[in-house]
Amino acid sequence: MVAGDGVLICFSGDQAGIYAIAEIIESSKNIEHPADIGYWIDTSRAMNRTYFKIRNTCKCSCFLCIKGTFYLHW
Questions:
Q1: Is 50 a member of any domain?
Q2: What does the H/E/C string look like for 11-44?
Q3: CA–CA separation, 67 vs 20, rounded Å?
Q4: Sequential pLDDT tens for the chain (74 residues)
């Protein structure tokens, strides 16, 4: 993946689905201690990994895909 590529932001679990569309804005970097470490349940999985800086392009607030079902919210 490189700068300019589009990505889908997904979540797993009961409400698994695509929640946002984003664009990679910087090349990947290995980060030992990410700034969002407080959001991780298992912090050991966040350490010393490759990350991409992204920019949100669509929050999917009116169009959402949860577990393969597409929803339109008006």
A1: yes
A2: ECCCCCEEEEEEEECCCCEEECCCCCHHHCCCHH
A3: 15
A4: 899 999 888 877 777 777 788 899 998 888 887 777 787 788 888 888 888 888 888 776 555 666 656 555 54
Which residue reads 């298992």 in tokens?
Answer: 42
Does residue 39 belong to any structural domain of this protein? Answer: yes
- Tell whether 1 is covered by a domain: no
Distances (CA, A) of 43 to 4, 13, 14, 47: 29, 19, 22, 7
pTM across the whole model: 0.62
Q: Which two tokens stand for residue 23?
A: 């664009």
- Report the pLDDT value the prediction gives residue 24, as an integer from 0 to 100: 93
Number of domains in the chain: 1
Domain that holds residue 23: 6-72
Helix (H, G, I), strand (E, B) or coil at 50: strand
